[in-house]
Design goal:
CATH topology of the largest domain: Spore Coat Polysaccharide Biosynthesis Protein SpsA, Chain A
Number of domains: 2
CATH superfamily of the largest domain: Spore Coat Polysaccharide Biosynthesis Protein SpsA, Chain A
Shape: globular
CATH architecture of the largest domain: Alpha-Beta Complex
Distance between the termini: 94 Å
Structural class: alpha/beta
Strand content: 15-25%
Helix content: 40-55%
Number of helices: 12
Order of helices and strands: EHEHEHEEHEEEHEHHEHHHHH
Largest sheet: 10 strands, mixed
Amino acid sequence: MPKVSVTILTYNQAAFIGEAIESAVNQITDFEYEILVGDDYSNDGTRDIILEYQKKYPDKVKPVFHTKNLGQNGLFNTIETLKLAQGQYIAHMDGDDYWTDPQKLQRQADFMDAHPTYSACFHNAYITYEDGTPTEELNPPDQKPVIEADDLIGEQEIWFMATSAVMFRNGLMHYPDWFLKSSSGDIPRYIILTKFGPIGYLPYIMSVYRKNTGGASFRDYYWDERFLRNRIMMYSGINKETGYKHDRTLKLNIARYYRMLLDAKQYKDSYFRKAGLAFYYLSLKKPSFSETREIVRDYILPKWIMRVYSFFALLPHRLRGTTQ
């Protein structure tokens, strides 16, 4: 029985999947581990590369192929692959990322063994960009060593754990309905894990998070109604999942997405829908007087009223100009 299950999730990543699998195969451990490669019905040759690695490492590499694309931004590919994991611990990785330290699995498994009350652990990672932007570290030098739910929930979206950097205990995750509809898997996953124990930090750079135009982070459209409403649904689900312990903070986060909805492309020519959203945003956030005035002016008052107001506001100046 393997101690660690490595799960690599991929879709149309022929240019990267080989490096990801290779970095997992090259791990040096004193325990057995398996590598499950979940492919979400790729059509660019990714599957052929996975099969090549299975032939080369038949005792380690186990393809998980689906007969169709499961959708939901790879979430169901992840869930179906995790179901097959036999290890005590799970080390996750996207198919366009890779590990840089052959001691990664050993270090994290040792940490989890030494901290039986922890639900997971993570380490530092490099972020690289395909446009040539310099590589940077994801976590700062003063990164907190112990992470709990409070550290993952804020008025803004919080993210500081690379997918390729996390190892968690098998059997802890569950998937409520709102999770199964979410376009993000990492954010709710880590919050759910903290229900079962803290998450520890190892200050080693042991993986690369690769940002490329085909990656999930480039599909987050903050001007698109569907994406924004999905985030609202997700954070509402997180609020319920955490027993409303962070209700005010999460409502402010949700209000932020309602504010972005006001500028979504689907609402461009819809006054009544936009005005309704504006009223709801004001009731949810209860912003300052100056912001309230701005929202009322830009989204609630009809344009013709603003034109009439502007006409009469400027009328004295115009009259003075004609009498001079």
